[in-house]
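Morning F.,

Quick status update on the modeling queue. The single chain you submitted on Monday has been processed. Sequence for confirmation:
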Amino acid sequence: MCSVKMAALRVAVLVLLGLCLGCAAAAVPLVIWHGMGDSCCNPQSMGYIKKIVENKIPGIYVLSLKIGSNLIQDMENSFFMNVNDQVREVCSQLAKDPHLTGGYNAMGFSQGGQFLRAVAQRCPSPPMLNLISVGGQHQGVYGFPRCPGESSHICDWIRKTLDLGAYTQAVQEHLVQAEYWHDPLKEEDYRKNSIFLADINQERGVNETYKKNLMALKKFVMVKFLNDTMVDPPISEWFGFYKSGQAKETIPLRETSLYTEDRLGLQEMDKAGKLVFLGVKGDHLHFSEEWFYTTILPFLQ
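Structure tokens below.
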């Protein structure tokens, strides 16, 4: 009788261990947000990233964000839909997704990097665990030296529009790239009139909720492309920017007032080992599969 009970107990323990191991092995879901001129499901970009992550992490749930009812709208919205409205739409999508209730990792490509940071700061539920920004411009841009593929004609128009009045209300509300346009020669105009970047970067005062929510991340990974010809200045990908009042000399994050005053909690995160700065040789968003597997995948597992 005793041996039967012991055998039953062993079976019960093994079943419980199996359940626990299954829980531990469950992959953390991943949310990805594409960049300017791209879409959620392009087989050569986000569709490809989704596929290789799924191949390397069996059972993972990957949500590639789509803003709009189809791929054309998604691409157009990356140029013309108010970023604050896009962030609200994404927060709604995430809150309704049952796969994400326990938390998720986020990976943003180019402008998708700073957009997902806004999600982390504004929408703490469901919780974002790790944020990976691949070429995101966290201090904004002051130029578009080159544009992706077939979008070059749109970017020519964008340049002209930004030159005419980046900080006018009409341009701010209807041109995505104006919302993270950061003119170091017009810092006061930027702080006063930027409806997106100046807000998430605490330029008009400290929103303690933004700070608290960002600091809840386990890791904030920033990838800078060392031969970037699209982002001006490239150091924005590591949260650095031009020294105020001119557009030649740049300063790293740790020398910016945002960091020294710790308005966003980045200094505290840095001291806690939560900030990760990665550099990869190549132009904007150009990286090898091997680099992705060895450098980025560990943050997703």
